[in-house]
Structures are given as C-alpha cells and as structure tokens.
Queue: 2 jobs
Job 1
Amino acid sequence: MTQRISGVLSPVVTPFNADYTPDAGRFARQCRWLLANGVGLAVFGTNSEANSLAVPERMELLEQLVAAGVDPARMMPGTGACAFTDTVRLTAHAVKLGCAGVLMLPPFYYKGVSDEGLYRSYSEIVQRVGDPRLRVYLYHIPPVAQVGISLALIERLLKDYPGIVAGVKDSSGDWNNTQAMLERFAPQGFDVFAGSETFLLANLRGGGRGCISATANVNPAAIAALHRQWQGADADALQAGLDRIRAIFARQPMIPALKHAIAHWSGDDRWRTVRPPLVELAPAQAASLLAELEAAGFSMPGLGS
Amino acid sequence: MTQRISGVLSPVVTPFNADYTPDAGRFARQCRWLLANGVGLAVFGTNSEANSLAVPERMELLEQLVAAGVDPARMMPGTGACAFTDTVRLTAHAVKLGCAGVLMLPPFYYKGVSDEGLYRSYSEIVQRVGDPRLRVYLYHIPPVAQVGISLALIERLLKDYPGIVAGVKDSSGDWNNTQAMLERFAPQGFDVFAGSETFLLANLRGGGRGCISATANVNPAAIAALHRQWQGADADALQAGLDRIRAIFARQPMIPALKHAIAHWSGDDRWRTVRPPLVELAPAQAASLLAELEAAGFSMPGLGS
C-alpha cells in the first residue's frame, strides 16, 4: 500500500470561460502552482463549485488534469453526489486514474436522514467500486450539506471497511467535534483533516493529518509552512498570521473572493467568473478585499507566470 | 399553444428492483393507474427519489415511459439539479419528448445564495433550452432544498420570460406564502400549485390551479374528486376527508410510507425498496400505518391489477 495523502490540500477553484465551460489549461496551471507551493489538490470540493458541474464535466476535467501531467497521487477529488450511482461512477473513475483518495459528501438532498440510510449509501458505494486501492475521506460539512456524518456512523464504517474508510474532512467549524474524531478514531489510523487552517495547529497537535482549506487556494505557502513547522517554537505565531489572512477572505463571499484574488494577482480577469447560483464580488466588496489584503502585506507570488 | 397542465399531479414514486435499478414496466403501470384515477404525472419529484437517480437514469426512464404509451402531455417531470448543465440537459430532453412542463428545483447545494444568482441560473437554463414549448414550474420547497424562491425572483423571471415561466409548486407549507403568490402573480396567468392537498381547496378558491402532492400517489381518486367538485356544497367535507388520510401518512417517513401502502395494496413487496439514504419502514411503523389506514376505511382499488 502506498503512503496515504496528508498535509495541506486546496479545494482548487475551477476556472471557467465566459460561457461557463471549464478551462482545463488554466486549471492545470493553477494546480501546478499549488503543488509548487507545497499544497495538494482536493479538486472538486465545495470551493471548486464541483456541485455546479455535471458528472461528465468533472470526469473530463480530471482526465485532462492527469493528461497534463499533474500527479494524481497528490489528488483527493470530491466525488459525493445526491445519487449513489453518480458517486460510484465518479469514485471508480478517480481510483482508476490513480488518485490518492476521494473526498465523499453524503447524499445531501433529503434532510433528516438516518445514520442507517447514510451507512447503506457509503457501504453500497464502497462495494460497487470494489477496488482495494480506494481510500474514502468522509466529508462532514453540515453548514452547507445540512446532512452530517456522526461519530456513530464513522465507527460503523471504520469497523466494516478498515483501510478503505481512511479519514474525514471536518468542516463543521466545531473544534469539539474535530477533537472527538481525533480522540476516538485517529488511534485506529483514521486521518482527520481540519476543514480550514484555523484549526490546523490544534489538529496536528491532536494527532490529525492536516487541513483541506478554501484559503489554501490563495495562501498555500504559508499554510504549508505551518504544517512543516508545527512543532517549532514559532508555530503559534505562524497560526496567528494565517488567521489574519483567513479573516479577510471570510468577510466576503468565500468562493468569489478567492477567484477575485487569483484574478488580481494573476492579471487574468477571466478567473472572476463563477457559475450560477454564485455571483462574482460586487465592486465595493472587491475593493474592500484587495485593500485589506494589501494592507496585510499579502500577495500571490509566481501566480500566472 | 396547447392548454396548460392543471389539476392534481402525483410526484410518482419510483419502483426499484432489489439491485436499486428502476423498474420501467412497473413504473408505467403505476402511471397508468394514476391517470385512470384522474391524476397527472409529476414524475421525478422529491417523492420520486429523483435526486437519488443519475441524469442518464432519469432520461432513460422517461423515454421508457413515453415508449410504453404514457401520454407526455400529462407529465411535468422534475428537472432541477445542482449543476445548471444537468438541468439544461434534463429539461431539453423532457421538452423534446413532449412533456407539458417541467418542475424545476433551484440549485440546492450552496446555501444562502442571492436572488441574483438564482435568477442567473434559471435565466441561463431557459436561454440554453431555447425552445418556445418550454413551460417552467418553479419548485419552492425550502424544508428540503433549503434554497427557496422569493416573490421578487418570481416577479423578475415572469417579466423576462412571460409564458415560459408558467407557474410554481409551493411546498413551503406556509399558506401565507401561497396566498401571496396567488394575489401577486395568478392574475398574470401564473399557475400556482399547492405542495399538498392540505391546501387544495384554499388554493382553488384563491385562483390556483391544483396541487402536486405526495399522497396523490396513494389517494388519487379522492383528491381528484375535490379538484372537480371544489365549487360544490360538500367541498369542505371532501377536504376534511383528504386531510384525515394525509395525516396518517404524515405520521411516518413519507416516501417509505407511500411505497409500503402501494406494496400492500398491489401485493407486490418489491415496491417497498427505497434507494439510500432513505430506509424502508420498520415493522412497527408499517403495522401502525396499515392499522390506521384500515381503520379509516382506506384502500387502493385497482392497484396491481
């Protein structure tokens, strides 16, 4: 078995053309820039607008990324959809392409579903994919999906699919929940990723493996530096520096803000395009974002080169 | 222009085989039974588990239904997905097959999205489908989708796409909202469907066109009778009778309860199967449902014959 993916991953924002088609060339360049800055590729995450892409669009884009020479061993594509048949298709495809793992949302249309129903969903998917190389990272993001992954569900899945069910991304924003996952499951080799760099240091100190964070799209080198140096004397200072930048982005709608910053520092205005139902930043939001980032001494070196 | 669809529609429950594949033959028979009982076909609704089906599964099943001779002029398939590219594909396909209209969820993964973003989504879809036969029924179901359709959004869409944007299904459960839609938009030829028969009489009295209701799957003839006789002297008594049956189903998880009743009265146990993340009724729930229905004198005549 190859070594599991760990560290800092970015839910890579997806570049669109004016007609909303994905731009595979720009996507590959962005992924290379992130890798060069020490960050892995959680492509097709929430911040990637993956759920605004059709299944064939996602499959084609992943194939183009691999064909462009971007290393699938550094990828953890999102594959969870409302229909388990879609999730099976996306997951089998990602495994076949050699991806290190997949980040799997629970089915999120029906609300108030039972752990039994979610167990059946994950179980059916694992069995249908039927590939020992599969590594599933459960995606707990109740503020968006509104359907969460309980500790009891993790326990049952880990028991029945050890090795395959490899970890979790906890985007609950609730440190107590992350801590409970670390205490109960990390000793069994279950890899806990914090849902943002806000909890990166705490997660690493608690036995977690890293973070998968929106702002790793724009501040990758500094976040990766904390991951490398978390046992150093200046770890808390590094964490505080990350928090300052994160807070600036978090004052705006996150995905349009990430794309606006990339457009600004790459000099490529096409990056501002988001698919409906999202909307790009309004001029006042954009001005405020850039003014705050510049005042903080923030920039994105090497972008667009 | 042909006459618009109206009256009582059923979000037809989807029959699955043991391996969770849809059973097209059983689906066509169920649709014929509903039509014979005076109810139209809002196939691929929430109660159809449509969001648990992949796009190609939905397209194939719709084609099989039309090929089996079920009249597309009596159909309003659900086509709204998270990715507008999926919605365009499903919608264009339904229009091409001759469906009377489509019931269109807003994109529902991202929460807290703006009316501007939802307007762009619907607008993009209408323009890309680009077919004057298209009739869009907006699907407002905030308890499930968590993304709703405001009065301001309806106003803007109606202004820009008159005739194409044809109506709404209001599953908010909030009569004040339905009433506001009726008052503001029904006079402009906007067809308001209540989200359940609970509000059927009130909706018809207020100028609405009917209802699209889960329990039209199991109690079609009685609901259709109220639609025909709503101006009669016994309308309130008919409404009260519908409410009694609805309440029995509403005490259980709705979709598994509908399927359990169909399995029971058709004598075909395969009907109990739901796709994950849903779970069929537990034995105690099933016993309670059937006991209450039998005590109310309920049955499903002609089913499975």
Note: DSSP finds twelve helices and seven strands in chain B.
Job 2
Amino acid sequence: MLNFELYNPTNYVFGKGQIEKLATLTPKNAKILLAYGGGSIFKNGVYDQVKKALTDFEIVEFGGIEPNPRFETLMKAVEVIREQNIDFILAVGGGSVIDGVKFVSAAVHFDGNPIDILQKRLLIKENAMPFGTVLTLPATGSEMNSGSVVTIDATQEKLAFGGSAMFPKFSICDPTVVQSLPKRQIENGIVDAFTHVMEQYLTYPHDALLQDRFSEGILQTLIEIGPKVVENPSDYKLASNFMWCATMALNGLIQKGVPNDWATHMIGHELTALYEIDHARTLAIIAPNLYRVMFETKKGKLAQYGKRIFNLTGTDDEIANEAINKTVAFFETMGMPTKLSDCTKDFEKTADFIATRFEERGWFAMGEKQNITPEKVRVIVEMSY
Amino acid sequence: MLNFELYNPTNYVFGKGQIEKLATLTPKNAKILLAYGGGSIFKNGVYDQVKKALTDFEIVEFGGIEPNPRFETLMKAVEVIREQNIDFILAVGGGSVIDGVKFVSAAVHFDGNPIDILQKRLLIKENAMPFGTVLTLPATGSEMNSGSVVTIDATQEKLAFGGSAMFPKFSICDPTVVQSLPKRQIENGIVDAFTHVMEQYLTYPHDALLQDRFSEGILQTLIEIGPKVVENPSDYKLASNFMWCATMALNGLIQKGVPNDWATHMIGHELTALYEIDHARTLAIIAPNLYRVMFETKKGKLAQYGKRIFNLTGTDDEIANEAINKTVAFFETMGMPTKLSDCTKDFEKTADFIATRFEERGWFAMGEKQNITPEKVRVIVEMSY
C-alpha cells in the first residue's frame, strides 16, 4: 500500500429534511452569497427550503452559474462578494455550482490574477472564503472533496485545481431531490460516479486489498441501482444509495494508498470544452477505448473487475476483454452514447487537436504507469469516433 | 437509509516512515505531554523516532497507562498537565493509551468532577485539550474516532463516552510497528476489528446497500489476511491492510445510515471489568452466542453474511446457522478462546451478576431492535460458560 494522508473535514449531512439544519450549520451572523445555477432550484422546492431555513441571515443571490462553470462568470461573483462584504458562500446546486463556488472561494482573497489558479494549477491551502453546499444533483462528489474543474471561455480550456482549503464546511445531501431530476441527469450522474471509481480502481493489481473492496462495493451498488433509479427516481432506497455512492466515489477515500489513472477525465474534459458534450457522456465514450488501448497495462485489474463485478469466467485475457464489453453495455443501459459521432458531426480533427494540445501542455506521460502518451491519446480518441 | 451526519476531521497519516512528520503536525511551540503505556515503545523503536522528530519541542512524559485504562491513573495525568502548563497531548500507543488520552483531554478543563464524564456518559463537544496519536497497535479504531472506554477501578466499571471534541487532531499509523507485536496482540486486534464491523453490520437487512458492501469488504479482508499476518507480521502488505482495516472498522463510516447493535461489546466490557480478560477475547466468547440467542432477529443478515462472506448455500436458516459456526471457526483460527471457562474458573455467577447490573443501570433494551433484555443477556452469558 502506498503512503497516504486522509483528511476530510467536511461535515456531511445526509437525509430527508436536512436542509432545515442550514441555520445551525451556517456561521452565526454571516452575510451569505447564495450561489446557484440555471434555476432548477426554483422548480424543485430547494430554493424555498433554503430561504426558509435562512430567514435570519442576510443573503445576496448570485444565479446563472452554468454547467461546466466559466471563469468569466465566476469572476462576476467574486466582484459581488468584494462589493457587498459577503463572508460566507452557500452553493446550492450540482457539481458545477459547487466547483464554481470553490473557485470563487479561492479567488476572493487571491493575491494576483485568479486565472493563475487554473492555468498554473495552484494548490489552495489557505485564505479561502468559507462555504457550504446544498447538493441538488448527485454525480461529481464535489460536495465532499477539495477539487474543482472550471472552464475558461476565452481559451476553451477546462482545468482542474484544488487544495485543503477547498473542502466545503458542510454539505447537505437530501436524496429526495433526485425525483425532480431529468432522466438524462440521473443517467449522467450514475456514469460519472462509476467512472470516478474506475479511474481510481482500474489500474493494476496491488496490495491495497481493502481499497479494492470498497471500490468494487461502489461499482456493484451503482450497477444494481443505476437502471432502477432512472425509472423510479422517487424511490428513496434507490435515490439515497445513488447519492451516497456518488459522494463516496470521489470524496478521496478510495484513492488513498493506490495508483490512480484519470486519463479518461483528461481526454473527456477536452471533448466537453470543444463540443459541450455532457461530462459523463465524454467519459462513457472514452473510457472503454482507453481500456482497449492500454489493455496490456490494465488487463490484470480488468480480470479482477470482470470476476468480482460481473462473475465472468475464462482465461484472464478473455475475462478482461469481456469486462470491457460489459462496461460498454452498462453505459448503454444508462443511455450513454458510445461514439463521438453520436454527439457531434465535427469530430474528424479531434484526435489531432487533443494530442497536440497535450503535447503543448507537456502532458507526455499520463495514467497510473505514466505510459499514456499523446500518441496513445490520439489512438484512443480516433477509436472513439 | 437512515439520516446521518458524517464528520471526521482527524488528519490520518498512514505509511512507512511517517513518524518524522510529527514536527509539522504538532502545533508550533506546544508544550507536549507524551503519554504512553507499559513501555513497549522503548523496545520497538517508536519512542526514539518520536523523540527525534520532536527535538525542538518541550516534552513532559507520562507513562504507565494500563490496558483498559484506569480513571484513577488518568487523573494523575490531568494533574501533571495542570501543574506543568501542558497545551498538547501526544498519545503513543494502542487503543488503551489513546482512549486514556481522550479522557485526559476531556477532563483537564472539565467543570465539575470528571468521573461524571464516564458515569453520566457526557457528550464532550468543546473545551477539550487538543491531542494527536502515534498508533502502535491496530485494533480499536480509536485513532480515527471520537469514542473512548475507560475503567473505574473503584467500582469495577468499564464505561464508554465520546463527543465531537474527542477526534485526534492527527494520527500517525505506520504499519511497520506490527512486526514488533506479540502474536496474541495481533490476534486480538484482528478479532477486535472484525467484531467492530459485525456490531454495525450484523443486524437486519436494510436499504443501505453500500454500507453493507463496505462492511463486507472489511470482513473479507480481515479473513484473508488475519491468519497470515499472525505468521508474517513483518510482511508489509499484510501489516498495512491489517492496520487500515482496523481503522476503517470503527472510524464512523460504516455505521452511518444503518442500525447498530453493540450489545456484544456491552456484555464483553463486563467480562473484562470482572476478570481482566482481553477485550477481543470477551467479544469472541460472547458474539456467537448472542447471534444464537437473537437468531430470529438476525437471521436475515446472517444469511446475507453467510452467502457473501463464506459463499454458503442452502436455505436461509441453514446458511445463517452455518455462518455462526464459520465465525467461531475464524475466531479459533485467530487463537481465541470460545468459552468463559477457558479464561476464568470463577464464572458461575457471572450471568446473574451482569444481568442484574444491566437492570440496575436501566439497560433494559439493547441491540438494533432494542429487544436484548437483561434476561436475554443472562442466557447469552450462561451459554458462554
């Protein structure tokens, strides 16, 4: 097992009716920036619950944080905070709103041009404005981790950053919100969480036995509940397991002590930046082809995954190959496209563009073995056309 | 899934050579009480590593915290802290030293007689002295939770308390320490961790699918590595999985959103208080008989456990019964006694004594269904003779 540090100070508050705890969770006398996205919180009742819980607080609202939150939009929130002497931010929304608020939190007191936080991938360890979240869309795990991904419109770049100051002070996760979600968002959420686990699990066999069991537990649960929760989003059993799995998939626990990949995300982010394809869909398109191209590196773990998750039998090579097919089948069950051409007509130069961009950024060695080169990225993306 | 709050701010630092991080983890300029037990840290090299890492700090030592730490001993540490203007405590040891330090941390600034913390089971949410730990014996999970168990010598009571101020600020867990442990302590540690999981898992079937998978993952890993780590304690793969399993078994995660039992511990604590039987051994003696007496309540989960952990087949009743036998067999493999009479000759009035004591304490309804009465406790203990 690799050495690791596990530190996660987020107070995670889970269950029905928990939004009313906002008044005790929010720092006394705080002036709050209430940040949200496109307005779904007005339809699903969450906005009303939040306002009711925070009757005694002074609130300034900032709506319109878009999916794949934009640096340009978020800098407007930074201005509002500075002008209005805000001292606490409440993110009410999904991963995009929460990721956006993390950037705002880091940018408010940042000494320099906040675009550096993204382009230089700075580690934010202090001087962040405290924030909490009310989660409305299970998927990214951002409600209980210290990472964030923000898009710069001007350069069409989708970039990750993070740091120990980027943990939410608290996150309220009420699974009843799942019933208000469009089918497509539930499908995306399941696949997003599933792929998060795969990035941390599907590497090579190693000594961290318990982490594998935990990852496999999340994968098994997502496979068990995924198709059902799409059909029955008001079933609390399904919704609550979905929400909890999505958090556990990326709150840091399962990545401790093990190799990580994350190349599927690196490539997927480019597809979203270029074509606005939903994040989860980019992962479903890229991941299986990445496993195929990196088969020799990953076949040991693919075989373990095939045996433990899909009960496959045969030689390890057979099981590993079939496990990839089973993964594609699961993604299809979850309504995912499997090819880039399903999502855009304008795909022909994508592989060249992304491979060249990675070269320019110096991303010559990605993946758990540092053997995913820009040339391999080109092949993976071409296979995904 | 039941509503829950997950909050665990301990900075958990795991791996080889991590003790040297003490200097950066300990608050600057702190005057430290270095608390330890019977002196094993002088033999296994941990004391030297700690002193070397803390060269720049002022340290007062307090040794002699016993297994099942005594209130009477701990109050002496409280006096030392008050006299010497200590402002940080470092627990270097196993669960007993860490539990003891938690009590000391709570007692130092306590307004009133600290014995009330135990006898009135007070919730400690503030005014505790900050403390960190260096773990030398994987077993109790105390290094990453907010609970503690302390024995009052005068009344022969072993009592639990806790609260959000009782989380260690940090815990350093270096698995290489396992190689220095006596075989009996490794066996105890495995069984202690295993039984911790069972208290949170072996209740009745419920909707929290992922928590079950996590619990089963810990049980599977302990069964896989338990006998091997006893034979090869210097094997880092085995030692590291052992240490990590013991922490995850009782750091709060797997108990969230699910019913809990803990009656085996309540009864086991009495056996330790009465006869000084090792904690883990009391659990191994009591747990199987508790499952037998509470069979109707637990058989659904026993069947799930039998299928998933031991791959048993048959009717659910058959599987449930056989799963208890498999548990006993595992405990025996781990060197546990299976009867009270293996540990003491003086057992004949034990069932009466414990049942009466529980009645006097008003413990009329224990277990996940609140249906373990003092009368059932009497039967369980008698079966364990």
Note: The mean pLDDT of chain B is 96.
